[in-house]
């Protein structure tokens, strides 16, 4: 029998809603054929697909990162403004694609406003110049009678967009990145850019380009850039065809957040930096790229399984538990490519990973609670893996078979538990111990599971992995509950003393 023990006095911190952010990139069918499909019967007059928009709205995305990713490192934003038919069609060296530029800055900002999401723009530090980046900030945020602010007005937008978040480049540590830099050259350049960009708009918040959170690149970027930025970014994708690796690999984010936090604390102390610097995990998801996927002409279209949904739920639990360090996360890439939402010409499909995302973004409460979990533990040896995107995790184990995050509201009258049962073949019986609190009335149980860890949703079987919801009458402060094999469960309680 497992035990999940809660104490409402053990508050880890406030959960930042920006951890439910997302990322859209000009890659594959994310933008064209996903977010926009001009002339389609399912698109509105601006060309935005209404079915996709509805699915995104249900995820309540608070912040949206754009335009890349690798794409941004050769993207010239000025190609994407003004009359659409006059915009140049360009070669995109990141993905070997043709970029029509029909979706540009104004379309992105409009889309964010429709969604109620804050825009987060990543800058081109590959082929882009500082002058171009300063002009982009002026175009978006300028309120004076100046050239780029006036170009925005001329293009139909009077008020500044007031874009708060700006990323200082994308993954410049990688040789695959157009304009790849050594860390020494990156920090030199990023410092110069940060100082100049803040002269255009001192209110912007800047994100330094980190790596996996614990690398030498991260260490040097943190040491040198903490005085100049507000956030340090981390990217980790995980995925494996080995079940246990797939569901446990997200724990690398524990390492990433602990290491980045320690390095940031040290750098702030050494340089006597008074402003806070937090971590942004601005690209994450389950991605198991095969060699085939890596071909330049191949459009990535990940099909997510139930076990991927468990991994995504685990990521989200980790984000909640590290709420003190992590202040924003952006799921890649929201629509098509690696995505909770996929489209064909006229339909939307919600992949398995959509469901834990929606449950977490809809029901997570304001404060994260520390939870003690007593259950079986898994020792996991690293599996040899040709996939370069996975990393070792054996050092992080053993792992609880149940992964749990708990949140409560300020008045301590509501409690939400998110529990991942990673045992693929057996339920886990548990007692949920609420300490001195008592349940009032019914408990809502929302469960995501299916017959097999490899179950996927498809246009033919769109609900093979979905959420079943039921109300259960429970009393007292020790609640018995059986978590189904290979499942994500959300339990919501009204509680009192
Ligand atoms: O999400 C796909 C790609 O993965 C992004 O463009 C890049 O930043 C990362 O390497």
UniProtKB/TrEMBL annotation:
Record SMART domains: Alpha-L-AF_C (SM00813)
Q: Which UniProt keywords apply?
A: Carbohydrate metabolism, Glycosidase, Hydrolase
Q: Which GO terms describe its molecular function?
A: alpha-L-arabinofuranosidase activity
Q: What is its EC number?
A: 3.2.1.55
Name of protein: non-reducing end alpha-L-arabinofuranosidase
Its EC top class is hydrolase
Q: Which is an annotated Pfam family here?
A: ASD1_dom
What is the similarity comment for this entry?
Belongs to the glycosyl hydrolase 51 family.
Q: Which residues form a coiled coil?
A: none
Subunit record text: Homohexamer; trimer of dimers.
Q: Which organism is it from?
A: Actinopolymorpha pittospori
Q: Which residues form the Alpha-L-arabinofuranosidase C-terminal domain?
A: 282-487
Q: What taxonomic classification does the UniProt entry list for its organism?
A: Bacteria, Bacillati, Actinomycetota, Actinomycetes, Propionibacteriales
Under catalytic activity, the entry for this protein gives: Hydrolysis of terminal non-reducing alpha-L-arabinofuranoside residues in alpha-L-arabinosides
